Here is the input.
Amino acid sequence: MSEIRTPAALEAAVRACVEGTAVLDIHTHIYEEAFGPLLLRGPEELLIYHYLQAETNRVIDDLTPQALVALPREAAARQVWRELYEARSPLSEAARGVITALRRLGVSDIRSYEAILARFAGLSAAEHIDLVFRAANVRAVIMTNDPLNPTEAGVWMAGQKRDRRFHAALRIDPILLDWRATCERLVAAGYAVDRDLTAATYPQIARFLTDWARRMGAVYMAVSLPHTFTMPEDSPAARILTHAVLPACRELEIPLAMMVGVRRRVVPELRDGGDGVGRADLSAVAYLCREYPGQKFLLTVLSRENQHEAVVLARKFRNLHLFGCWWFTNNPSIVEEITRERLEMLGTSFTPQHSDARVLDQLAYKWAHFRPILVKALCEKYGYLMDEGWYPTEEEIERDVRLLLGGEFERFVGR
Ligand code: RAT
Ligand code: ZN
Here is the structure.
């Protein structure tokens, strides 16, 4: 195929390629149909997303945070619509996202709450999933799977999972971060563990993890870690990580995903909307990458202040794969900065975005908002090459975009 020689042709080729490449979304909280009520979908769920509840909480004074999050779904959604879409314009990233999602999913009268509800009435879960995957141009997603959630465990145990577009990730936060409370639940599930973490407990925790990872076909294990995460140290979390989690990952030959920098429950009454961010010390990640060269790690960091350090770390360790602009960094201004910085230091060897979608429909907006940013960043980088006489072909651009939208991740995890 011929070389691209002008900025206009470059922009057209990169845009077509980024829009046309189906993405593998490597971290979401959505579920396939078999998981029943765990699959959140539709306009009311979109509106009561915890990002928007936090924004609504800022502008009301007639309800306490507890009362706000306790509202039934219908009332809560109307309240968010009233406050963030009628009393003011939806300028924030999360508020804008609802508009993008609804429009991309076929709502024509975007100012009418009734028309919005009507668009989705009667849509089956299967139809809804197909509609959203098509609109978002997503080829597959990785879920966040918790074996300690009874609804979820039931589906896995019954072997009901069917949809090949949905892959699993075994989430281990309660085991790693709240062992005293979680211990009893493993005992109830038939694993001989004890609260005091005696030597015999670690292989039992590892067995629980390997049993569940195999049952789910987990692509990776994952944990979201506080900004205070430290390694090495003598704490229950560090001991469980070293003696149970890493041995289980090794046996399964899967990566451990670390999502670092959350400050849980700054305002507990707001539940998920009450979590915050803290600057982490990534020397814990460097320690793990060095000490366990045979173990693969996925990493995303929540604080903007940690982004540069994370990219530098990823340059050093081939067992470290950086991914996504997570949660409070998933705002266009910050996504652009992070993506350019990563391209500048890593080339294509990272995964620039994941959706973190909690509601199916959010896939449509998260990817619609990210793609133009990727186009802009790539045009800048190819443009620099063209200035010096290196002219990319469409095939080369397609190859690079495929790597960035899932291919590099698949190479890294060996799938
Ligand atoms: O982005 C979110 O919705 C957060 O509440 C968290 O779920 C975070 O992404 C996580 O996976 O811990
Ligand atoms: Zn998440």
